[in-house]
Amino acid sequence: MATQRDVARAAGVSLAVVSAVVNGTSHTRMRESTRTRVLQAMQQLGYQPNQTARSLRLNQTDMIAMILNKIDNPVYGPLRHGVYEAAAEHGATVLLGDAETMRSGSQFLTRLLSQGTVDGILIRGEGLLDDDVMAELRSHPKPILILEHALDHPWIDVDDRRAGEIATRFLVNLSHRHIVFVGGSGYLSQQRYLGYQQAMDAAGLTPAPHLATGFGEQAGADGLRQAMQAATAPTAIVVNNIMSAVGVLAAARDLGIAIPDQLSVVGIHDVDLMQHLRPAVTAVRMPMYQLGRAGVEALYDLIAGRPSAGGVITDPEPELVIRDSATALTRIRD
User: Fold this and answer.
1) What letter would DSSP give residue 211?
2) What stretches of 4-117 adopt beta strand conformation (E)?
3) pTM for the predicted model, two decimal places
4) What is the pLDDT of residues 173-210, one digit of tens each?
5) Keyword Repressor, does the record have it (predicted)?
6) Which domains does the chain have, with CATH numbers?
7) Which candidate, 184, 165, 161, places its Cα nearest to that of 244?
């Protein structure tokens, strides 16, 4: 097995130069041609760095944790992709946990908080973690970054208010006037509802109360049934979460409501499934992949002792994906 000394001999450089290249340190100055020569020698000799020794020397494990609420939620596919890709660029692997199963004293939480297990923790779904779990996480000496708005931790998030505005403005431009906002709860849902209110106010329309029925398919179905009981039935719905839009479509069929001819539907978030439904669902695509990448970079800033450049991601902004579930209103129902 090749050693750093073998690489140094093959590249014609000192052992210190090889060590600097292997560890990515910047205090050893060298020409780019020298670095290239060392990397070529490593490849030719099949040299593999001793990651265990490197981790001990740098007090790093080259592993980060990511905790998500409902990790099987398809909305998180692009987020996980962004996290995995950015973590790999830092030479790290990702330990994945589900917020719904984390309890104080659980095996995963105990392992997560063990000395030297991870270099940092990413969390989305902080509101689903009970107070005891959050207290234990906050006691961890390694940094934590929240992948949503937070008051007492560094955080980074997508622009939920803008998403609500984009969805509602699209429906307003299709001549809809009776538009409701269905589903969700908590801060991010409030932000999306504020975006809905903003677009309604800008059009001189009266926003309907937020039907905060929760997340998921059943929440969407419940929200639609509540909306249709209003004195003036809506002609369009903004659904807080794209999976809740599936429930809206199912309930509409059960109630004999034709989409989009009698009711237009726009969901927030987008997943591949939405283009295969009938009708295919118009949605606001959130930059979740970019959130994953930006979250890892911000976490590594914290790991390095630098301030994190967190906040709301505005570039790229949420993007409207127009499909078949929304159409221009041809007859206003009063």
Assistant:
1) B
2) 63-68, 93-98
3) 0.78
4) 999 999 999 988 888 899 999 999 999 999 999 999 99
5) yes
6) 4-49 (1.10.260.40), 59-158+288-313 (3.40.50.2300), 160-286 (3.40.50.2300)
7) 184
